[in-house]
Amino acid sequence: MSQLTDLTIAAARDGLAQGEFSARDLTESHLAAMEAARSLNAFVTETPERALEMAQASDARRTKGEARPLDGIPLAIKDLYCTEGVLTTAGSHILEGFRPPYESTVTSQLWRDGAVMLGKTNMDEFAMGSANVTSHFGPVESPWRRKGDNRTLVPGGSSGGSAAAVAARIALGATGTDTGGSIRQPASFTGIVGLKPTYGRCSRWGIVAFASSLDQAGPMTRTVRDSALMLCSMAGHDPKDSTSVDRPVPDYEAALTGDIRGLRIGIPAEYRMDGMPEEIEALWRQGEEWLTAAGAECVPISLAHTKYALAAYYIVAPAEASSNLARYDGVRYGLRLPGDSIDAMYEATRGEGFGAEVRRRVMIGTYVLSAGYYDAYYLKAQKVRSLILRDFTDAFEDVDVILAPTAPSAAFAIGEKEDDPIAMYLNDVFTVPASMAGLPGISVPAGLSGEGLPLGLQLVGRPFDEETVLRAAGVLEEAAGFDARPPALPGA
Amino acid sequence: MALDREAIAHIAKLARIRVPEAELDALAGELSTIISWVEQLDEVDTDAVEPMTSVVAQRLKQRPDKVTDGGYPEKILANAPDSVAAYFAVPKVME
Asked: Considering CB atoms only, which of A198, A312, A338 is closest to B41?
């Protein structure tokens, strides 16, 4: 039974095709794993009945010879994706009880291609966080532990439930969303692969909005190939999202040729930050050596405005969030607290419904957009953003892909960094620049820290060149040969 | 820029978020720290730089201006905290 939960998506696809097991077997194994791992708090909502129905339908299709690309593959869905008739909370008290009357485009494409939904994963409230500690439904626990230290660690965030579910062998893959690093950073913390596609590659329709010029859906899996497979189903133009691009979806799996001879890899000098742990620098150099040994050429590049990306992000993202979250007013869905006037009702509802981090960001956003401050903050940040994009555009004249660490540290314990918002924001220092420029980025598990925790390396590519990113990531993955397993696998 | 408790109360009002009196000072401290930190952007010379308006270079697609969806008020109202007939209900707005 436990063996089925250890498969990759690609291996499960092949096993299903050869009749070694049924979609029902595969789904039942994962539902049992989900139940055994409830202590991780990775799910806000489990949907076992729906999963079994979908698995049965999948088996029926296969019997008729009508199997689809992801037929029978059990996936976990971040609770930011609207799922028709299934509770969707975005990790917030203010959306408690909300059952969307529609399905997000990305999830509908996964179901179109035969995938099975196991449930909705826990996350930082409205995707605002880097440790999955801001969820109204409590923190997610990572299945990882430091050597000789039994303290509970964070899985990273905001897609922390998705990351924990994939790392703990509860799901073969999961959807995440990435606004400033919310796919890549938790992937790095939990030893899995996380891919943020180019802005516009996947439709945002039906995904609860945080910062609309940054939000992007992407896969979280245990291998690079599995991320390629999921992206094939998730990507594509959607008339309901005008920022989704109308260009063909390549066969991303076919991009994994393993051949990176002649590829030029940029090593950005500005990512060598003061205070970065030596073991992360060492892993980064190791990554260079692996890619060089495979025939690529690593060259130094400069991304001069890197140090300003995080500050610009913490103007742009809260500004967009303050606007997007204006819709939670207690009128059409979710929580409502009574008030004598409509304003009193709004204020009571939003005061009660938003957690501390969301309140902080909505207020920062409100302030930087308010009369008299717009030019000084928001406009300034959007100008700096242009400079960040220009740095990348110039670099990609010379190189094909950029290699950097994913995060400046390994996972930390629940409770650490919680008193200082800026210390928490620094988790995303290496992921935010690519987000600001809309570029595709992937985190690949590349090694273990001295404490025995996973560390990821990140590859960033040209807009819509996920194929090169995946190809290089596949080589990195093979060279790293990461096969460590979380020591705290529940039920193991 | 340092934000005082009056400024925080004003921002809370603009954002329509009730903040308990007792939390105003702590929040003023937190938001001031964040605002001072983002002000490091002042070091960057942006005089000749256009603000980013579009993340990915593409032309916005056009479509016919036609109604393609709708006609199911009961579905739309299913999540409403309060509704009357086919309408959302809110506290009295006019006297």
From this structure: A312
